[in-house]
Amino acid sequence: MSWAGGSFGSRAECVLAPNANMMTLDGTNTWVLREPGARRSVVIDPGPSIAAHLDAVAEVAGEVGVVLLTHHHYDHSEAAKEFAARMGCGVRALDPEYRLGSEGLGDGDVVSVDGLEIHVVGTPGHTADSLSFLLPAEAAVLTGDTVLGRGTTVVAHPDGQLGAYLSSLDRLHALAAAHEAAAIWPGHGPVIDDAIGVLDYYISHRRDRLAQVEAAVAALRDSPHPEGVAAAELPRQVVEIVYQDVDPVLWGAAELSVRAQLAYLAERH
Fold first, then answer.
1. Average pLDDT value for residue range 147-175
2. For domain 6-194, is the CATH number 2.40.30.10?
3. Lesser CB count within 10 Å: N end or C end of the chain?
4. CA 178 to CA 175: how far, in whole Å?
5. Cis peptide before 46 (omega within 30 of 0)
6. Which are the catalytic amino acids?
7. 0.90 cut: is pTM over it?
8. Please, are residues 119 and 134 in contact by the beta-carbon 8 Å criterion?
């Protein structure tokens, strides 16, 4: 499935950054939101510091009221301060380190720019500072890396926390079930028109993976290895069992995810 961004609803345009790789899929989605007929826009996740990309975003955005960040990862935040300074506005983020100006951003905040209303939804788990942005007028939620347009995301220990992530998926699912968020506009990959279907899949996938990790740990514990399995080696050995169907190039990311799952299991026992 090819993805190149484009216009969605009456208020959104996605400008795709040219930073495609195995972790970013087609590249980072920079979202430009504007109320119809309004003068100023809101830019979400300016992405990497690539001049051609920032020029393209600036052309679509026109006058910018504020830049918002879904989370601090480099492929979303690198150009945020640079772009905001260029456009004469601030950057609002949960993590103070990534802000430009005095205004922060947190769960329950409502960002209003020239009639556009964005509701901030705290969705930690992928990272501690992950936020999603609900656009009630479009019944759409911008999820950053919490939900991707293709595949599933990495919950990378220790910044990523599986318990928090599962709670965030439940919170997004509740928004979808209440018909507040029919569509998902992700940080990577294509838009998703069936929010509740994808969230059902994400939740069941995480539960299935967790069960697989738990079974792999039990199998390793019962193996006849004379010295047992060293704690430092356990995550990698679990990856080799559970992620056999995944390209080994991605096993490093899978190991971070396994570490998050092992920490979650340890907390439950």
1. 95
2. no
3. C
4. 5
5. no
6. 75
7. yes
8. yes
